[in-house]
């Protein structure tokens, strides 16, 4: 089923010979109709590294027309909508719960229904991608996004809102698994990592934009949420219209036997570059795959019984699982709380500050886009995960120190409602903070916390207490402060540093690489199913981690929860170290061979790095033995 990696490393003769100023000899070689394999290191007078760099530059200039960027950006609008729709809900919820009087259960339903629907549609997207193709799936996703936005913006009751959130989730799931695959299949190998990573840049860009929109519309107390939800129809319609004119993936077309169309699309996205070699190479691989695929049965079964695809699936799903287990979405979702811990005492300011958090995530994803083709996927993921683990430890230590110096309760007011609340039983802020129904009300005298009590939170808003000194009306008059979900201590800034460090390390590697790597590690016959499974795993763990965070914090405390995520991240580090091979610069058709060794030795096949192998194929009739025979010169 696999082809030898060497068989596929082809640089056009034009690139190299232009470089070496040997046009004449090329003519001669081509004219003779001979297939010659010329080892680059036989040109002893030319330093091989310079040769490599210059050849690559020349080659890249030849093969990167603007159209491939247009295709990638229009597809990545799917990523933008994924980020926007998962991000916008937290700000919308602040307004919604007042407007529609939502209970905690309904709030949870509106948030998690989208993620749940995304998990299901990502899994179903595998079949749709295989049968209908990538383009119809992207069109379908943008229809879901548009319909969802319209339903949400016009909703009159919570049931309709729930319907809208489910429809949006269906769009997110399909887009999340299709877009990376489509971009990877259209991109030339030297740009593939960068272009697929741009999709994650759009995800985090969507999350940032959503935070800004949340901030801006939070001033509009009536119907602000309608604009927040409705705005996403614009990029969705834009993507739909764009994709009416954009082509299907050439690899999918070849697989379906639509070879003429595939050639047309390939020359459209490759511009002036001749596509014969690339077309032949894709076609040969697909033919070989089909010949070897042998056994029938569902694709997932064939993937599991064939060791290289089984290993690729474990690596792909493992990466997506560890991405979520490292806690990115608790950090994103609870950033306002973490920021409040550092002394930010105003709800609206906290919303704007979480826009800064989202901006940090976005801007450091940009660093990932820049690094992915320079250092490669493996080193980027390893570096990112190491930093993420350390940042989680700093974050946990911040919470631990805060808990240890947690201020005591020094004043117990009488409960005017006579409900005998549990809040009045806590003697330290730490216990009070971990109880979702209570908050800490205190005054400051110099640098000391005085007159502190634990009081029930207002069931309608966590911004004030249900009664006593810390309601909105009485707070400023009495000179009191209200801390919900955090304790005011002098160590709070450690958590802020941890949060920033976390995003700086997570965003360039662990954020985008699971998506990028998954788009490239499966052979064509298994690509849709492989991506469907790994995206499904991503969404399932997303739900699990974000739904369990508050309970985990209740049982293990905040620092316990972050130590737990640090533990997950370090297991992830071992997994990536052992199992993730480097795919940078390889053609999609060569990557399968990286999974030929036993699973946790795959990571060691970082192999070719530092070793320079150049194969030059001179086109013409082949009268030599075979394509991958020993005459390939290293
Ligand atoms: O790669 C993305 C990105 O890191 C987002 O910030 C996060 O919210 C998603 O869950 C993740 O899949």
- DSSP helical segment count: 25
| Series of H and E elements | HHHHHHHHHHHHHHHHHHHHHEEHEHHH
Are there runs of 5+ residues with pLDDT below 50, and where?
1-46, 607-634
Percent in helix: 55-70%
β-strand percent reads under 5%
The overall strand count is 3
Secondary-structure-based class equals: mainly alpha
Cα end-to-end separation: 23 Å
- If you average the pLDDT, what whole number results? 82
Evaluate the radius of gyration: 28 Å
Q: What spatial form do the alpha-carbon principal axes imply? A: elongated
Sheet of most strands: 3 strands, antiparallel
The order of strands across the largest sheet is 2-1-3
Query: What are the distinct ligands in this entry?
Result: 1,2,3,4,5,6-hexahydroxy-cyclohexane
Q: Identify the quaternary structure here.
A: single chain
